[in-house]
């Protein structure tokens, strides 16, 4: 089992308030790891530390390490970390002034790539990877925001994939979507893991059960349990985990 | 353009006075009261426009626009206003927008708060005080020999005064416009590995562009009608623009002088000039609104 | 909050399931007791009662199956709930089987047609077997109701006694039949009874082991008595 990303004793604060405490978690390469837990348990904080987005918030700080292929991400530049670890957000956020094409190619264009051919290829490849190509192939110049909710989210996934990251972090990617769009994205996640390492934060346990190889349960900022999904859902080791997944608290 | 449907307050009026009926009558009464208040609010605005139109139209003709104020026209006044506003914008738009960018992107700290506070204070300074300030500043500079004393009453002085009023205004509206760009748009850009300066320049600015443009146009509209600061700086002249270091006429100033003059011809010209000024301001507002709609057909900026 | 409401429905479903399981268990135990009682006294009326019980057991078993499938379809249960439901689904088969063997014993009682002079002597170790078998069933049911895994973790060993008794009874009966002191047609019936009792005990062991899984998630390995003996040596 190759570990693509690891956190070591990671803690993070927003000002005086602690978001996560002493989390050491491994993420296997080419696997989907789900992070579940009740609202406010630190799931989003955790992944935002992983692509160094946490530090952008004023008065935020963190301790501990995050290792990408064994390298401390704080030893690298934030920009290069974020190119290797991409993120998709809870609410689809395509750039409002850009077309579908421009949205997908934004990561490359805004980093200086001008070669039209390369951009065209990237857009095609990314949209195909995100299972959106067939639906938008004839309207690449339409505004990004003119797509439906589910399509917009897949657009954001395509945009993230266009910069060819190694890891994809997804923060509750389906929470704003209807069941059909959700199913499409879950299928997509299933395919994506062949080439990427995926981390999905979700508050929907059935979703974790459906898509993830490994599941980690967080509660009040601490890591309670992590295991192969089928083990965690069939025989959780911790009482707290059992209570959460069977819905007996909250 | 579809006019909004006028709500019919008489619809559904009950013919009873039990509790349900009383509530409906109260509702009806409030609707009437609100409507009356709207009328009261619109009356002064409407009457200004009507007065200006009625009295001013008589003065308007081709010569009105071509002649200088020395000859009863307002040609040089329009020219002067345009020049002053153009130069003032040339200075204040970049400075104001950059300040706005700083405040919204980098100003989430004590220093930023302090700047914001001072900018707010500056937007409240009475414009005549700005006029006095610029006047004394140039005077002092000329006394110590740094600049020529001619500049005290000149287009340059007028430009500086208008810019001083415009900068804080544009800075604030620019900051607001950029604030409207959602955090998630910025995060999306950062998450792609786009460096911060490029995120601001090529994602945030274009997204907030319509808001910025609106703010700029409103700033222009604001200073276009200022009179007091120009009294002690640009001063006024009967003739057309003759150099940056010379006094220059402006529309508000023309209205002021013509209205107080004993000649009825000039009084009427004052009404004409008023109409022209109001129409200019109106056109800027409408234009900025159209711009907003064309960029965002569904309405709203920075979504 | 919809999440809470869904769990209430699940909790209610689980409670009803448990009630049904307990009823099923009681019916099965009652069936064997009656069947063996009927055989001992060669009373055909008791056999009829056992047939009725078997019918009820079968019907209840079907309903429990349906309950379980519904709970899974509607509530996507996990962890303990999931194990409880899948265990229930499986052990209904065991209880049903126990009921069937009880019925089979009752059938044999009918075949005797109430006459058999040496009956009690010929029964031999059958009463002893019956006692142990019933105890095992009882133990398994108690463990299920109390959700007590430890009491049944080694239930397989208790079954060894039943297996030994069955062997002994088999040999005794074969002896008697070859020495002609017992009619083969009759002797064969006794052998069948011992067989049924041994199977009943096996099903009790199944139930016990599934209870261990239901409570702890552990799966107890099935080891032949011989190998177990070898291991402890």
Overview of this protein structure:
The complex is a heterotrimer of chains A (250), B (303) and C (233). By secondary structure, chain A is an alpha/beta fold. Chain A has a domain at 3-94 and 165-245: P-loop containing nucleotide triphosphate hydrolases (Rossmann fold), CATH 3.40.50. Helices cover 36% and strands 27% of the residues of chain A. Chain A has helices at residues 43-50, 78-84, 100-109, 116-129, 133-136, 149-162, 179-192, 205-211, 229-234, 239-245, and strands at residues 3-14, 17-28, 32-36, 60-68, 71-72, 85-88, 167-171, 197-201, 214-219, 222-228. A 6-stranded mixed sheet of chain A has the order 6-7-8-3-9-10, with helices on both faces. A 4-stranded antiparallel sheet of chain A has the order 2-1-4-5, with helices on one face. In chain A, helix 6 (149-162) packs parallel to helix 7. In chain B, helix 8 (196-224) runs antiparallel to helix 11 (264-295). The two termini of chain B are 25 Å apart. Mean pLDDT of chain B is 87; it is low at 298-303. With 233 residues, chain C is mainly α. Chain C has helices spanning 2-41, 44-75, 79-112, 119-123, 126-146, 155-178, 184-216, 225-232. At the A-B interface, helix 2 and helix 6 of A face helix 7 and helix 8 of B.
Give the gist of this structure.
The complex is a heterotrimer of chains A (250), B (303) and C (233). Chain A has helices spanning 43-50, 78-84, 100-109, 116-129, 133-136, 149-162, 179-192, 205-211, 229-234, 239-245; strands at residues 3-14, 17-28, 32-36, 60-68, 71-72, 85-88, 167-171, 197-201, 214-219, 222-228. Chain A is α/β, with parallel strands linked by helices.
